[in-house]
Amino acid sequence: MQLILILIGAMAILSGCGDTPLPERVVLLGLDAADPLVIEVLRERGELPHFDRLIGEGVSCRLRVKEPIFSPIIWTSILTGFKPENHGINSFTLASGQEGGVRIPVTSNMRRRRAVWDIIGSGDRTVGVVGHWVTWPAEPVNGFLLSNYTWPPSTEYEKEWAPSADWDTVGLRSWPDGVEQGVLDAVDEERFLGERHFKGAGMLDPALTHYLRKDLRYLNAGLALFDRENPDFFTLYMEGIDFFQHRLWLMHSYYENQRFGASLNGLPEPESPLPARFLGRIGPMVADSYRLADRLIGLILDRLDLEKDVLIVVSDHGFRSYPEGTKLHVGDDKYEELPFWHSDTGVLYAAGPPFKRGKRGVIIRPEDVTLIVLAAFGISRGADMDGEAPEAIFSRPFLRAHPIESISTYETGARGDEAPIESPYDESIREMLRSLGYLD
Ligand SMILES: [Zn+2]
Q: How far is the CA of 316 from the centre of ligand 1 (A)?
């Protein structure tokens, strides 16, 4: 009897089970519009040390998206494992029923599929969800959730763009209700991310200050809740890179061209040379938004042990210049010729025990991300999901110990309303969408 037990023990060690336990924690960081080529250029100059570490220790994929390249649609694919036609979020806004009615931003009740945090949290794992698109009204989770309506628009933003809304009437901003209260006060912002980490922002445009402060608030509160609650799965969304690229791509391109000799990629030369001081202040701000993301990755890496834990960084699309005459689908019913806009290529970087080290060049789709997260936790995929977890990115011993399995479905019944829920935040969101050119 004893001999048999020893033999079974030896076989378990030989088969590698003992060496490849499931990760203790998985963190999924979402960086809107983080572009693979911009990241490469900044890494070559040594400006993104934490991206370097993540990429050096893990896999580096390109994420290819289909039109229309709109953030709420793609993030919902990333976070459910389903294509837009199946997850139910197909636009930024939906026209309200009334004649001449305004457009209402899409809301979480319209999502037809369960989110990755619902699946992970339905076992005994806890979750933390911070700032993602289409998460208001906040739904119950096994942990905490700060919806994308957790805080009112900043005062700078309100002054410039939007009438003030009765914020207190917006319910269900977080789960458990009010979990964000006290967190921000308890955070010494300088411990995490303050404006001092962001050299140039907000000098020329109050909207930039708004986006920076909005991000800093979610990032600081998110990290504070992460430290306090210790969730097994944590996901945090950062919007600033997208916004800074929309506003400042031209200045970024001129700066990179003049300072580092980068190609203008078909953008017209400035008619007269830009004053060096002006360009020196405005030109680096897009790169600043990547450096802020790099610092955030550093703060998360400080909290993880990549021998046991997983960090995945993903973007929903990239950003690029377009040749003259390119018509782009830039809003729900909006086509425009623009010199620069979203590109169809984002990134996914992942490091930790489930992943190969130094693997490059695998192309994935948004709907694959949920399945990659589930596989990293050793959780079965839903056979009805549209995505795949590409085996090429996982380490062989990990897959041998934890092969990717399926169950028929995680869906527990019909969900997904046809219409969004109106809120006092709507006018502010419409203003934001207009400022980015998504809405007339
Ligand atoms: Zn986006």
A: 5
